[in-house]
Amino acid sequence: MDKWLTTGRLESEIRSLYESVRGEAVADDAIWGAGSIDVGVRQLLQDWIPLRRKQLTEEYAVGGEYGLVPGPQPPSGELKVWVAGADTGEEWGQFVELRNPHPFAVDLSGWSLDGPARWWARQGTVIPAGGSLLVARSIPGVRGGGRLVVGSLDRSMSRGAGDLVLRDEGGREASRLAV
Asked: Residue of 32, 79, 87, 107 with fewest CB within 10 Å of its CB?
């Protein structure tokens, strides 16, 4: 949210996409009566986004009426690559656990794991304050309730295969674990 909604980046992306599809949308409207893309984009930019921005940055933000959306993430959002292993009875190297030791949630959007196995965090991937995230080779292969699990670790790891490195969205090393 910090990088899209509060900086104008979202509106810029919408305008760019609008320009790239406008001709086809106008042609479709002429044939099918689908509605004017110009009206839709104008409503989005002038009505919907400002309303949602106000809701998310004021009403639902920390200190707002509802206080559901956390504040901006501090730059020191370090995490720890805690363990690489497997559930009992499975081949070792099937998952990696990332732990957040902080009293705030950490947004992993754009982060990655490099080394004997690789993974890229999708936009919106968040580890709650004091929580952890299992990055698994196979989501159904990770047993146990109540754990936050995502895929897809690109391969199984073997012991002694090298260092697993967690990198933030800028490519800076956040944590390292000898596998």
From this structure: 32
Confidence at residue 117, expressed as pLDDT on a 0 to 100 scale: 83
Q: Please name the helix (run of DSSP H) or strand (run of DSSP E) that holds residue 42, with its range, or none.
A: helix 37-43
| Residue 75 pLDDT | 63
Measured over the CA atoms of residue 68, residue 69, residue 75 and residue 80, the dihedral's sign is positive
Which amino acid type is present at position 67? G
Burial of 136 (0-12, 13-18, 19+ CB in 10 A): buried
State the Cα–Cα distance between residues 78 and 176, nearest whole angstrom.
Answer: 11
pLDDT along the chain (179 residues), means of 10: 81 95 95 93 96 90 79 62 52 73 83 88 84 82 71 73 85 83
Identify the CATH homologous superfamily for domain 80-178.
Lamin Tail domain (2.60.40.1260)
70, 104 Cβ separation under 8 angstroms: yes
User: Six-digit token pair at 169?
Assistant: 């969205």
Structure-block tokens of residue 107: 């947004």
